[in-house]
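Page 42, continued from yesterday. The earlier attempt failed because a stray header line got pasted into the input along with the sequence. Redoing it now with the clean sequence only.
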Amino acid sequence: MQSGAASRAADLLGISQPAVSQAIRRLELEAGLALFVRARARLQPTPEARAFLIEVERSFVGIDALQHRLLSLRQFGLDRLSVAAYPALGLGLVPRVLATMQADRPALHVSLQVMSSKDVRERVLAGLCEIGLMADEASTLGLNHYLLSEVAGVIALKKGNRLAREKQISVAQFLSQPIISLNAEDASTRRLIAALGSEAHRYAPRIETPYGVSVCECVAQGLGVGLINPLVGASYAERGIVLRPFALRVPFRSILATTAARPLSTTAKQFIAMLRQTITQVIGQQKQ
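This time it went through. Structure tokens are written below.
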């Protein structure tokens, strides 16, 4: 189906064209379905063939997961941890937790993959990681999931901004600044617009970006201010960014996802406990 012709498929597989044609005929005979339409020396897949391909690809994902697991066991044994995380947690908070863990367990091998929440979900479902950390707009269908954290968004400002002197940023002050926003489809952006109420028409971001770390990078460059997850902003104090409470409570929620097919290891349970503890510490420090 990828090559579109038996001759090209034969080249890719390293076999003869007649062998490819015979394999297709044998498959169609066993299935009792026409999987390809022959037209001008090309093979055009039928709708049934496309539906079958989806199932085949799912099977290969399962095989890839098994191969990945066997390789990990061969190289690192059981003393390992596999985490997929969205950038809000994966680029700052999770490495902080891992540093604490590895201080006591130097032999621990960690796979930390940072990706979008959607990709985190797919990776957990495929069995390619033990723990997934994602934003709450991602689907949790088919997953064991728990609310890891719910924290109020804060305003990130570049040090030296006149609003950095304020103890809390009002709606009027926020809207008076060039705004750097998470994308419109982000759950926190939708909550912010809803919370603004009658003032929502004044919300006109200068820059939109999918990740809180991108918002912070833009703030650090003096491009404006942004509402962010405080767990993201905690890593930017040394970059000249200050965080201030916002007059409106706009929650940012993080979800911890696992699969029933893969019971959590002792190492994973330890990681989760330390992650929760670190989140509590970070939020507590910011309130001081």
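Notes: The first strand starts at residue 36 and ends at 39.
Reminder to self: strip header lines before submitting.
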